[in-house]
Amino acid sequence: MPTIADRLKTVSVSASVEMTQKARDLAAQGIKVIGLSSGEPDFPTPPHAIEAAHAAALAGDTKYPPVDGTPALRAAIKRKFKRDNNLDYEVGQILTAGGGKQIIFNALMATINPGDEVVIPSPSWISYADIVRFAGGVPVAVDCPQENGFKLRADDLDAAITPKTKWLLLNFPNNPTGAACSRAEMAAIGEVMLKHDHVWIMTDDMYEHLIYDGFEFCTIAEVEPRLYDRTLTVNGVSKAYAMTGWRLGFCGGPADLIKAISNVNTQNSGGVATVTQAAAVAVLDGPQELLAERAAIYRKRRDFVQGRLDAIDGMSCHKPEGAFYLFPNIAGFIGKTTAGGRKIETDRDFVLALIEEQQVVTVHGAAYGMSPFFRLSYATSMETLEEGCDRIEAFCKGMH
């Protein structure tokens, strides 16, 4: 009997995927579930994107695509980087893949040798560390505590870098906390990285347009141009334009690095679907007003949920600058027992009991590298959020 490859022994199933599946399973049983675990916009894909995809299909644009992206899409990405980030990338410095996750996977597979270290501010998206391990590298978590707004401190970053460090992986606005770095905070990170010229920098900017309260997004190659030649700027259309199912991520970076990533891409993909690429051109070059309009709706949702959770005795909920997540601290409930008789010893116990007793699906903080917290997404309707908050409040009040 053949055996499964050893490389998968260190790679876990995504906790957010696991919890979202629990929500689907309960819903299939006819149970009314409040699903707050999925990092997916509830808005529709812009109509002009769908129209562009339809037109491309009708025009016969259904053959194998260029692996790195169509000339039209790469040109649109070039314009996007200049317009939004003041970054000048030539078309040959840009490529696409089937989502931001595939860009990150291909980049790490193209560059990591066994034992290479990747510094990851924590808490962080579940997949970063697993992809590093899959590539043979060693993830190095750097704590970004709640008292610091879940942001990366320059001194902590400096202390984490060793001769084995290959990458620093940045994600601000952050999943799961929603924290974002100001220009001054990003500049401080840049100053540290200028001291360590053997380290690449990857910045996952997927939540770039989901920012609130007048906060100004910035990306590191823009803030510190001297790092441009060592930075891979990753983005996509999934979160900003509500196109998660279309699967389109893109990046800009040094030409030699892009060539290496492209080489990996040719082995695990045949290029992104042609109709997706046509849709992406439409949204990148089309009207951008919807970004601010949708961000304003997310901000109202954030304020509502953050206010409700912060009012629960025993819970503290930091107000994030961006993304569509909240990451409440539940230290006040560790050691307590739920109304259903379940002892809460970890944040995983908390979220599992919350599913069983109130049918609210969230994700435990340990999955993102920090306890005792849990992550919930407010990328859903106010009606759902109101009921979800009611159920969470009842769950917490029922503990003793």
How do you describe this structure in short?
The protein has 400 residues and is α/β, with parallel strands linked by helices.
Describe this structure in words.
With 400 residues, the chain is of the alpha/beta class. The protein folds into 2 domains: 6-44 and 290-397, Aspartate Aminotransferase, domain 1, CATH 3.90.1150; 47-285, Type I PLP-dependent aspartate aminotransferase-like (Major domain) (Aspartate Aminotransferase, domain 2). 40% of the residues lie in helices and 12% in strands. Strands 2-8-7-6-5-3-4 form a 7-stranded mixed β-sheet, with helices on both faces. It has a 3-stranded antiparallel β-sheet with strand order 9-12-11. Helix 4 runs parallel beside helix 5, helix 4 packs across helix 9 and helix 11 (289-310) runs parallel beside helix 13 (382-397).
Which descriptors would you attach to this protein?
400 residues; alpha/beta; Aspartate Aminotransferase, domain 1; Aspartate Aminotransferase, domain 2; 2 domains; seven-stranded mixed β-sheet; three-stranded antiparallel β-sheet
The strand order across the widest sheet is: 2-8-7-6-5-3-4
State the CATH topology of the largest domain.
Answer: Aspartate Aminotransferase, domain 2
User: Mean of residue pLDDT?
Assistant: 96
Please describe the biggest sheet, giving its number of strands, its sense, and whether it closes into a barrel.
7 strands, mixed
**CA(first)-CA(last) distance:** 51 Å
Q: Give the low-pLDDT segments.
A: none
What would CATH call the architecture of the largest domain?
Answer: 3-Layer(aba) Sandwich
CATH homologous superfamily placement of the largest domain: Type I PLP-dependent aspartate aminotransferase-like (Major domain)
Radius of gyration: 21 Å
Helix-strand sequence = HEHHEHEHEHEHEHEEHHHEHEEEH
Contiguous helical run count? 13
Quick one: how many beta strands?
12
- Structural category: alpha/beta
Number of domains as seen in the coordinates: 2
* Proportion of beta-strand residues: 5-15%
Question: Percent helix among the residues?
Answer: 40-55%
The CATH class of the largest domain is: Alpha Beta
> What form results from the Cα inertia axes?
globular
